[in-house]
Amino acid sequence: MNFLLSPEQIEFQETVVRFLDDRCPSTRLHELFDVGGYDSSLWLSLVELGVAGIALPEAYGGSAMEMIDLALVAQALGSRAAPVPFLGHVLTGLAIAWAGSPAQQAHYLPLLASGERLATCAFAETAGWQPEEWTLTDNDGQLSGCKLHVPFAGQANLILVGLADGGLGLVKRSGTGVTVEDENGIDRTRPMGKVTFSLSPVERLRNDIGVAERLRDACLVLLSADAFGGASRCVEAAVDYAKIREQFGQPIGQFQAVKHQLANMAVEIEPARGLYWYAAHAFDHIPHETTRCAALAKAHLTDRFLQVARESVEIHGGIGYTWECDAQIYLKRAMFDFAWMGNPSAQRARIELN
Q1: CB of 229 closer than 8 Å to CB of 304
Q2: pLDDT recorded at residue 190
Q3: CATH architecture designation of domain 210-353
Q4: Chain centre distance of CA 189
Q5: CATH for 7-114, options being 3.40.50.1000, 1.10.540.10, 3.40.190.170, 3.90.1150.10
Q6: Which of 45, 58, 108, 151 has minimal CB crowding within 10 Å?
Q7: pLDDT (mean) for 260-265
Q8: Which of 50, 66, 41, 20 is CA-nearest to residue 114?
Q9: DSSP states of 40-96 as a string?
Q10: What is the pLDDT of residue 4?
């Protein structure tokens, strides 16, 4: 049995990486990071490559591909710490494709696939991240309450909101009573906001806890793929720096302690590639393993990403702690992946309960 990627999958992933290297090199990434900004032209150019509609039905402008294809893009974006709203946008599209009415699908999906509308998702509450923990209630088509840690809340046109009993709803950011407060999150490649609703109109999707849980699992797979990409990049950057940074008249990569640290970083990450690959494969082909595999991938890879990002800072020495070094950007991205949608301890506890 062939467990490798197809040539087409490899080429598409490499195309995304080459595009990011060209359009958002380190200098541009720092410019955006410094201001906590969002480059709409970068996102729309990625949309033109097809990243927004990868898993959407062909009838609505998508490519009807599988979770592994979405995850491969997430890995590429993570490897370059791309400051784009991929995660919330594609999750909203998936939710509408799975639980929207024919009218909702016909209206929203072409707009999301083409990038004419930017979407995000709002899940977190003080009670927690999981569908069974959502408390926001739809009262006769209106919402009142708030959601926390919403990525790109200030830029999105459409917000997918997690509702009580695993429900899902769509709220237009320009709608009545919708306000966004910048949370000044640590990862400036993915700014977050607190969204408050006050009698805001909401369009309900099909009320099915199974859809909400499946969406949660999709999110975990994409976060684990992003973490693998970011961690791999940290290892590459640390190795490259160890080859050129000299101390006592020789590159620091010649020192045994540094060699061991770099080797440990590589061993922590590379074998974990199959963890997110399998979770993505299970999502479409082994449904009874999806929840466990997605949670396991998210727990392990985001945990390892955070550790490897810290070690990359150490390898870079004094400059690794400065704002000008790329290492701090990846460390902060690792913090986002670690915490968003539940930290590794919460994921492992959920697996044990099930």
Answers
A1: no
A2: 95
A3: Up-down Bundle (1.20)
A4: 11
A5: 1.10.540.10
A6: 58
A7: 92
A8: 50
A9: HHHHHHHHHHTGGGTTS-GGGT-----HHHHHHHHHHHHHTT--S-HHHHHHHHHHH
A10: 85
Task: Find tokens 């902060």 and name the residue.
Answer: 332
The tally of CA atoms less than 13 A away on the side-chain side of residue 181 is: 8
Task: Read off the pLDDT of residues 198-251 as tens digits, 9 standing for 90 and up.
Answer: 999 999 998 888 999 999 999 999 999 999 999 999 999 999 988 888 788 888
How do the domains of the chain map onto residue ranges? 7-114, 119-207, 210-353
Q: Which two tokens stand for residue 326?
A: 């790329």
pTM flag (> 0.85): yes
Find out whether 154 and 193 touch, Cβ atoms under 8 Å: yes
Task: Name residue 56's amino acid.
Answer: L
Tokens at 288, concatenated? 């009874």
Q: How far is CA 346 from the centre of its chain?
A: 18
Query: In the block, which residue shows the tokens 């797979």?
Result: 221
